[in-house]
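Cross-posted from the bioinformatics board.
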Amino acid sequence: MALLKYESQVRPPLVDGNKDYHQVTEDICRPVEAKPSGLWWIGFIISIILLLFGVFSVTREVIYGTGQWNLNKTVGWGWDITNFVWWVGIGHAGTLISAILLLFRQGWRTGVNRAAEAMTIFAVMCAGQFPIWHMGRVWNAFFVLPYPNTRGPLWVNFNSPLLWDVFAISTYFTVSLLFWYSGLLPDLATLRDRAREKWRKNFYGLAAFGWTGSTKHWQRHESLSLVLAGLSTPLVLSVHTIVSFDFATSVIPGWHTTIFPPYFVAGAIFSGFAMVQTLLLVTRKVLGLQEYITIEHIDVMNKVIILTGSIVGVAYLTELFMAWYSGVEYEWFAFKENRANLFSPYGWSYWLMMGCNVLSPQIFWFRKMRRNLIVTFFMSILVNIGMWFERFVIIVTSLYRDYLPSSWSTYYSPTVWEVGFYLGTFGLFFTCYFLFAKFFPVIAVAEIKHILKRSGQNYKQKMDVVERKSVEEFASEQMHH
Amino acid sequence: MAIKKFVVGCFDEEQVLFSAVKNVRKAGYKIHDVYTPMPIHGLDAAMGLRDTSLHTAGFIYGITGTTVAFSFITWVFTTDWPMNIGGKPFFSLPAWIPIMFELTVLFAAVGMVLTFCYLCQLAPFVKKDHFHPRSTDDLFVMAIECTEKTNEDEVAAFLQNIGAMEVSTQYKETGWWMGRYDRETKLFGKQVEAVS
């Protein structure tokens, strides 16, 4: 057993059941190779309908202009930018799991990283829709790119946080996609070599890029994964930092704060983990993968949720305190009257945010609650609602009362087409996720095999005997001396 | 590339594989490659492969990205079209750092993945010969290349002796060609005769 790295018996196994390498392949490839279930079809069709409704809503917006939305003179950013920040934030958990936890050598990431990375990519795709369609004249969207043009050439403003966002989001999407797909190659090769039907062999043969599993290729693959993880870690922090700069570098009361970057990043990871929980609780149940995405995984992710949720809570209180302590009357007014005052027009959204993001995750101090699937699922939804309202509070409650009280009378609420756009991105997200869950292995097969002999339940049990024996031997040896 | 003759041994335990690699190398046979379903740490060193310098390439791509971003923005804002934004200096480096960083990451990641694909000869529509269909499932497959001097029976017996659970002799193409995995496609170009 010299090869096996020692892992303490205190750590619970990451793969339950009596597994060997072949069984792992079988378990994870089975849902991909089976016919889709009725439940899958229902979910998929609902997603497609939502997507089509979104396409319809956006088409109206393109034809008639942003007047289809209820944005008004002071609230120039409403649901669109709220949804943008919300979706980008959700994406962050995937990168945290795949990159940061890889650098921290957290073995449990192997069970969830593939699905979480897919979630990242789909979430960023959804996020990107909002600023693009918000442009109104979307046919001019390519103006954000610095290309030699006939208007001078007139370049984009590299000093603007909005342009930084263009670079940040597109880089984030590209790098996440490359990271995800390079990790998928070996698993696609596994599917290819197992395939019986012609189309399957052809499809996975095409998708696997001719992967063979050569030792030299694995060596490069490991190096690539490590460096991409090292690149993605600062990248993911930079992306939400830059998103927060969209607000923080302005002079609007409620936005003009230096706490935004870390506060946004923590919030992003918080909401992202909630979404990972929502998706994986359903995925593991429907695809029968409870032995790979175990209660331990859920427990650990709930710990991340309470940690990041508490960071967010501290940030809320800090910005509230700083608004008062700064002595800037406009800042304090924005916080006291527009947000914290429950009876102000949007006061309800502030307290909804506080309740969902700060109070409710505290339930996860209890181990029993962290390991309760129903509580976890309910909480994951609650956190996502709360985090949506956080962005809504930041954007709308800062804008709806500007420096000119005569323009305060308008109460911003979305039109059906604004809501339709948002629902449409849900359609896009879940359509992609359903296709992913059907055609790709939702768990990284090769990575599970890599940790199997160290963290698999049956292997750990074997090691337990060895460990006990060696301790006893050691003790008796010492006694005879 | 050419079609060559290989003696192929399959193993199902890492420990057996490691000692087998050691023994095969000691006996002086040439390991063409070992195919494994997952990365096995230390196997590359055991096979005597040198470390990859892919990360060095990544670093070079990264600094290329930084340089491109820095020099391009500098040229745009100081030479090509200086813009007076609130009386701030044309050369406003701190405001460029986000884009410089993003391009560093973008160049490094894209460059590394392309280099990785090039080095490993991975691309869509690429087809390669495989020694065993289970090498991506649960078997560790060692291919030993035969030369004129090799006695294949001897090699096969040797492999069996050191723990291979399945031994065979195979003629395989070592390169790649454009093809589909759902049928036996012919190789591109002229076929090279197998070494007898």
